[in-house]
Amino acid sequence: MQNKNLESEQDWIPELARFSGPRYKALADAIEEAVGNGQLVAEARLPTHRSLAEQLNVTVGTVTRGYAEAERRRLVVARVGSGTFVRGKRWNRPDFSIPAETDTTLLDLSLSLSVPACREKMLADTLDRLSDNSARLASLLQYHPEQGLRRHRDMVARWLERFGISADPACILMTNGGQHANSLVLRAMTRPGDTVLSDYLTYPGFIYSVRQQQLRHVGVPMDAHGMMPDALVECCRQHQPRLLYLMPALHNPTSIIMPEARRRDILAIAAEFNVLVLEDDVKFSMPENRSTAMVSMAPEQVIYSGSFSKSLGGGLHMGFAVCPPDLVERIGQVLRGDCWSATPLMAEVVMSWLDSGKAWELMTWQRDEIAARQAMVADTLNCHDLQSQSFSFHCWLRLPEPWRANTFVSQLEQQGVRVLGAEMFAAGSSPAPQGIRFCISSLAERRQLQEALEIIRDTLALEPIQKPIVF
Predict the structure, then answer these.
(1) pLDDT tens per residue across span 411-470
(2) Is residue 6 scored above 80 in pLDDT?
(3) Using an 8 Å Cβ cutoff, are 173 and 332 in contact?
(4) d(CA 374, CA 361)
(5) Backbone phi, psi, residue 301, to 5°
(6) Torsion angle, CA of 313/314/317/321, rounded to 10 degrees?
(7) For the chain, give me the number of helices (H) and strands (E)?
(8) Which of these, 244, 155, 145, 169, lies nearest to 202 by C-alpha position?
(9) From residue 185, how far is each of 33, 103, 342 by CA, in Å?
(10) pLDDT on residue 467
(11) What's the rounded Cα separation, in Å, for the pair 151 and 144?
(12) What is the pLDDT, as a whole number, of residue 2?
């Protein structure tokens, strides 16, 4: 095998005898090694299934399973009609994680964060008030039931009423954020090897959780209104899924809001095939921007996850899950085994903000700021295929030909702007469209956002700079 960097399907033939175990796993191990040592570079196209099978003297099915295992490890991606391509070194692959150190030279539009505001004074005042109540502080230092304190759950139930959602406090579990809630549901309701469904483009945090639980992830096609009912029926018949994950209130990354009629159609299909629905509603939106939640339509069928990270501050790490009564104990057991209970001090801080009205004031200010920033987006990128909402932290931009998402993301970063390409959001083996998501909430000042938007606009007007593949 050659030791140079390889960029064409003709150059790479693995030596499976060097690896133990079944041949398909040996193939995946060989791909991982070649990616790690640089023999296979990002965007290199692997040999076709039939070509590699002939050269290795194995069945086509063995190569198919090997490529599928490599895709499960996030080493490669299959693109319908094009082939299987290398993602790049696992530790160098872009993701949506929080960087250890902030790069002040970048205008980072990659993360959906609450708008920077003076929350420090609110937090300091809240902690001062708590410090004057020694009995309350003493209670917060104790172990608590896994569901969380009853007064906290009562407050969450009253808060949800403002958004048109009726929840029994006995069916609420306090969690360390929305991601924690989703992970708990997956661990409680599925077993390794089970199939879960989501939109074919979905939240990367859910994709990672599915992979960690060793579940099979199938993406369901979408249209302008979200998940397509006919496609969901076909997926249910073919895959017998255990769970369906949705973001109907505001889809990440496309910003689609699923109409109520579509929500009812999806719920009817899920009921027909006995599929539990996980409704993720962590995105920030005020009551006037909401339709009836799926949990309100079918409370016995839906688990609802929410969070205060987008509305009040990510560092609070406070979320919740609203569960059908018969699932509270099951999910609560996983929560108990995970961390016993969510952090009561942070819950106390958040509940005091809800009770005092500070949370509503902050959300109202943030709503107005986001609307102003969305207007900037519309003015700057009005000639392009853009999809968003007036209250959304993020925007979805479909790229014009001949742009490809990975090339566009790379060229933007060279000019000091960071965004995420569609591949980051592709569920399972779903093909990724040529689009990007960019977030408008995380930059401290509007002038920074305007600068980033102008760079995006000007880059769209350029020709892509692509590295040629040498055969």
Answers:
(1) 999 999 999 999 999 998 888 999 999 999 999 999 999 999 999 999 999 988 765 544
(2) no
(3) yes
(4) 20
(5) -115, -15
(6) 90
(7) 17, 17
(8) 244
(9) 34, 35, 15
(10) 56
(11) 12
(12) 39
Q: Please give the Cα distance from 185 to 305 (Å, whole number).
A: 9
Alpha carbons 263 and 277: distance in angstroms, whole number: 11
Rounded to whole angstroms, the Cα distance separating 299 from 55 reads: 55
DSSP H stretches of helix in 162-251:
178-189, 204-212, 229-239
DSSP letters for 37-79: TTSB-TTPBPPPHHHHHHHHT--HHHHHHHHHHHHHTTSEEEE
| Lookup result for tokens 């896994």 | 146
Closest CA to 449 of 439, 437, 461, 462: 439
- The answer to whether 319 and 182 have CB atoms below 8 angstroms apart is no
Distance CA 374, CA 197 (A): 31
AA identity, residue 148: G
The 8-class DSSP code of residue 201 comes to B
- Cα–Cα distance, 9 to 167 (Å, whole number): 55
Neighbours of 144 (CB within 10 A): 18
- Contact in structure between 144 and 452 (CB atoms under 8 Å): no
CA distance 194 to 183: 15
Strand 302-307 to 276-280 pairing: parallel
Determine how β-strand 222-223 pairs with β-strand 226-227.
Answer: antiparallel
Please give the full DSSP string across 202-217, using - where no structure is assigned: --HHHHHHHHHTT-EE
How many Cα atoms within 13 Å fall on the side-chain side of residue 287? 8
The token duo for 171 is 């069916």
Q: What is the dihedral of CA 102, 114, 249, 290, to 10 degrees?
A: -170
Distance in angstroms between the alpha carbons of the first and the last residue of the chain:
16
Q: What is the DSSP letter of 138?
A: H
